[in-house]
Records
---
Amino acid sequence: MFTSERLRQQIHFLREIDNLKQILRQTVLIKDQRQENDAEHSWHLAMLVMVLSEYANESTIDIFRTIKMVLIHDLVEIDAGDTFCYDEQGRVGKVERERKAAHRLFSILPSEMMQEYIDLWEEFEAMETPEAQFAAAVDRLQPLLLNLYSEGYAWKKHGIKKSQVIERNYHIAEGSKILWELAKNLIDEAVSRGYLIDA
Amino acid sequence: MFTSERLRQQIHFLREIDNLKQILRQTVLIKDQRQENDAEHSWHLAMLVMVLSEYANESTIDIFRTIKMVLIHDLVEIDAGDTFCYDEQGRVGKVERERKAAHRLFSILPSEMMQEYIDLWEEFEAMETPEAQFAAAVDRLQPLLLNLYSEGYAWKKHGIKKSQVIERNYHIAEGSKILWELAKNLIDEAVSRGYLIDA
């Protein structure tokens, strides 16, 4: 069926990652409060990068690389699962589980592609380059938007406090001071509407 | 809540397009035969572009622009809905409905961004540039893969014939001769497994 081993590996990978659509997050969609999955989330992040990149602290970020990063950043959850960001126990061993998953998944690809994707994923995780910091910023901002516009569904369900959301999201400032200003306003709005506990 | 009218428009757009996750396609996911939605599909296409761009007929295509095109290509379906590609009646008036949708959606954005997105979408629709031709190729190949690996679920449900699939998909060759060779092999495999009617 495949004209080369290389193409077979690439198609095998593209088939395998269909499973990202099965990984559910705690955040729900605005319209019907269905849980969002990781593929939808990754698409939405890519759109946030496209639309909001002008607000990155570093005006020269490589938008293309940032988009590639957000498109692949959650693939490891196909094996490792999604960990709710306020679940301290679930986070134990997360790094190890995800690194193992990255190696299994990306090694389906031809070797030089595998290396490119592992490098992208490691860059995202390390949050040190301006691109990774901006990617991390939109990865925090997007669920804030969904939470606010779904009337605080996931926050109310888990009894989340304002201080937890601040603690979780202040990293946004490293990627974008302007988006962190926005995020703080969204959080205050959520408190005033009773979606978040004011503590 | 917003520090500028520009940022308010951008966030409004990013909120509005959350609804792409509500638009169901006929194709189903490999693992559980759930219908795929347009956001998942758009993410998957971006991954196909990343992984398979080496097979584009034109070796110099702008991969970044191609990815942007596939990320936004289905947004018009938020208003216009998804039309099953083998539904001849459903296709009547599709172009007009989608153009109207493009203008409503993209005009939520600041005006120069609106123009950029309308241009990208028009480029995709016209299928004339090498980027648009490659984007169209992966837009055809991805459902072929899902159909084959979900044991022909959507094809069998609608009693689809091999000749219909060939007719629908031979445009792949304009973007990538190699991926069209692959597609023909996938189609033959589907016929031999009884997923497609051999006619």
---
Amino acid sequence: MTGSGVSGLGDRMADIQDGQEDRGIALDRVGVTRLTHPVSVRDRDGRVRETVATVSLFVGLRPSARAAHMSRFLGVLGRHPEPLDAEALRSILEDLRTEHSAPTASIELAFTIFVSKRAPRTGSESLMACEARLEASLAEAFDLVTSVRVPVMTLCPCSVSVAGTPGLGQRGYVTLSVRSGGRVGIEDLVDVVEACASSPVFPLLKAEDEHSLLASALARPMFVEDLVRNAAQALDADERISWYRIEAENLESIHDHSAFASRERGR
Amino acid sequence: MTGSGVSGLGDRMADIQDGQEDRGIALDRVGVTRLTHPVSVRDRDGRVRETVATVSLFVGLRPSARAAHMSRFLGVLGRHPEPLDAEALRSILEDLRTEHSAPTASIELAFTIFVSKRAPRTGSESLMACEARLEASLAEAFDLVTSVRVPVMTLCPCSVSVAGTPGLGQRGYVTLSVRSGGRVGIEDLVDVVEACASSPVFPLLKAEDEHSLLASALARPMFVEDLVRNAAQALDADERISWYRIEAENLESIHDHSAFASRERGR
Amino acid sequence: MTGSGVSGLGDRMADIQDGQEDRGIALDRVGVTRLTHPVSVRDRDGRVRETVATVSLFVGLRPSARAAHMSRFLGVLGRHPEPLDAEALRSILEDLRTEHSAPTASIELAFTIFVSKRAPRTGSESLMACEARLEASLAEAFDLVTSVRVPVMTLCPCSVSVAGTPGLGQRGYVTLSVRSGGRVGIEDLVDVVEACASSPVFPLLKAEDEHSLLASALARPMFVEDLVRNAAQALDADERISWYRIEAENLESIHDHSAFASRERGR
Amino acid sequence: MTGSGVSGLGDRMADIQDGQEDRGIALDRVGVTRLTHPVSVRDRDGRVRETVATVSLFVGLRPSARAAHMSRFLGVLGRHPEPLDAEALRSILEDLRTEHSAPTASIELAFTIFVSKRAPRTGSESLMACEARLEASLAEAFDLVTSVRVPVMTLCPCSVSVAGTPGLGQRGYVTLSVRSGGRVGIEDLVDVVEACASSPVFPLLKAEDEHSLLASALARPMFVEDLVRNAAQALDADERISWYRIEAENLESIHDHSAFASRERGR
């Protein structure tokens, strides 16, 4: 196969994707999914950290367009190595929309961030992983949903109420999603969640830290329902947040399933 | 701990969940998730088959209710061993709503079904697994979304257009979700998906079946976008279906990511 | 493409897999993986239950053989619908070895079983899921490893030792694998695991069951290391078992990682 | 709870883990698993890149030791932020063994690396993700197994042999594990795998790249068995490698399962 031949093939391939489509059926989202890509995020202290994202990129497809050129999604992503923030996401979406002559564009990124934790008594430092998620779209307006999944500890109020029985401490995960125009950062959401549980969790705790943590939790037993209401109160009071969804899941210690509660509200 | 003491404790525990809650915050969904439970489904030929489901059960929680009694979700589920259909799901939801004095109830079940396949030339029989999903809720009305994820094969039109190059056959998955009041069964949805791809896939194919399948696929190359439009045409024409969502994903052979297209429409 | 053409093609395809291979390199395992297939297992009470398995099937490939005929793995599996036990597995392996003229054959199946549980005080019944695994091979001799992963509850001894602090109950998973020539069943292994923990877990517990369970656990606090040693003592004393591996993982309530201990021994 | 009280509690907790254990049962591995931690790796060009690892850390436990102090695993890991290489891993293991007065120590890390790819015709650059794994242990000697999972494309020889039928290109994954005393790097293993397949895969390919890639693959059709033998020949010839395991899995386009082949050999 010669170079000129290949070039000719390339043109013919393009023809197929750009070919006639007359069924009159628009597609909501066309693009690439399950892509693993390096990204960077700026933490609260301004430091840029590299992490690994699972990425989906989409455009809307007009009824008359046969197919999207999938390589263009990769090309746009490769041209945007800057740290992920609202501005960077909007810029990616504008490029996608232009390159595809598309009515809409959207992007979803899921990645791990690390937050610095200090143990309550010894001050021992460690890094705790939280799964973050950014979902941005550009149609008439730009929209951004910021999410984070935070591990916490809750102590069951039933067990605490009975003298002589052990408490049922259990690990839980709270996934908090908000629309704030990018004004509320991922680490701010971690703070909200940790303040709403019986206790935060920590990667590194020495014996005296564990006891301090348990003593604090004992003063703050709660059901998964209480946890969600605590978070709802905090988010209702934050004027920067126009919409939120709180999903809390407790990994029950005495069952092999989870207890769950959720609330979603917009202003 | 004596029996009478335990009984007393049980009463006190109930008190906590039924206790006062005065923050005025309703919760959308409260319940249990990540439960693995045996279920049965009736296939198209009327035969009842046992399978394994991941189950979530929820009720809405009024602002004045402190917490749900989680054991009641398990109790209701245990009292409904009948094959899963619209009637059974509605009955479970009514029981949940009654037991919890709740405004709403919902259930989600994900499980594997098997469909019988016959190889195109030799007629060799095998069983193909598809992941099914039922999501039912009861608020003002009963709502049911039936979904299935079906593996298919698509052949890239670009590769077929060039003499002397191999075609790019690739595995894909189409997830079809519909609202039909339970009138369209899971296996009907499998049929719709298989009719829309370059070819169905089969667990068992002998050499002559493979060649027959490839010859058929060669006559029907398509992009992931074409696949979704094919399905949309079939669903648009089916009056039993009041809403659908089609999500198609091709596991690209020359990339380590997927090509994706989707369309969602209600009447 | 005509029928006779297809038939001819089939013959030519067979030629390729049966073609010459002269590099002198044997392959340990050749076959199919990630296959989802319906299987049935006979429970302790003799009742046959259907479940869903992820299956891998392999044969060893001699240096002179170019490739295995993959459809034969599916054919053999389809001809063995009988409940899975040592005899059925050996029969599948003998068929695989014969059909492939292979020196060795092996099979791995992972599936969910359900065990009946009765809550400790109220006797409420529910079904608890456990993940089981069978790994069988046929070379000079037949070999079978039976495994099961059982959810349990452990109570941290540190927390119990301090008056006034809540106990740290946490969910754990113990995976027990044994060689016993098929004489020790999956449910027997579940019994071993449950007897070694601070407490079993149950899908359905009413308030008084929870308190009974907590009281029992309080009398039996343990580290993950204790749990493994408890199981080792039980298995060391069982003459039917010629080899075992115990892996225990505790989902720490105050961390987002697990504590782990393991021991593997043969006679 | 007062500060001095907490301090006293800490001392008492330590007592429990260090307490008497007289059953005479050694444990092979005790430690922490499912920990998510930031790590860095030095790529072939000497550049240090940050990534996210899932980490397990273990020590062997003597029969007389009751339990390990789990916080020490976190402490050791936190004191080793240097890029992961054989020397760093050995240093971590020596620290673990010392801190736990343990006979053995081991570590397992799984993380994503990115390798730079240039499309075959246009030279378009993109970053391809591969899953890497390091397993190191320290007993009598230091041992290190380096693994990487690489996506590739294979073209079925059967389909190619028949004029007029499309080729069955399909994505595959090859997991290569070697012992080389740390002298063979992860990217070297990626090179070995890519040279053994019908074609490498790329995140970003333009139309003419796709056709070039397909033309190359057409000249090199292979079964999954051929792929493993190609890799075995390359590894057998590399004197730095004292042991290897090759596992290749093809995501069959016409089935919903994988074809698999493996070979493991030591010198």
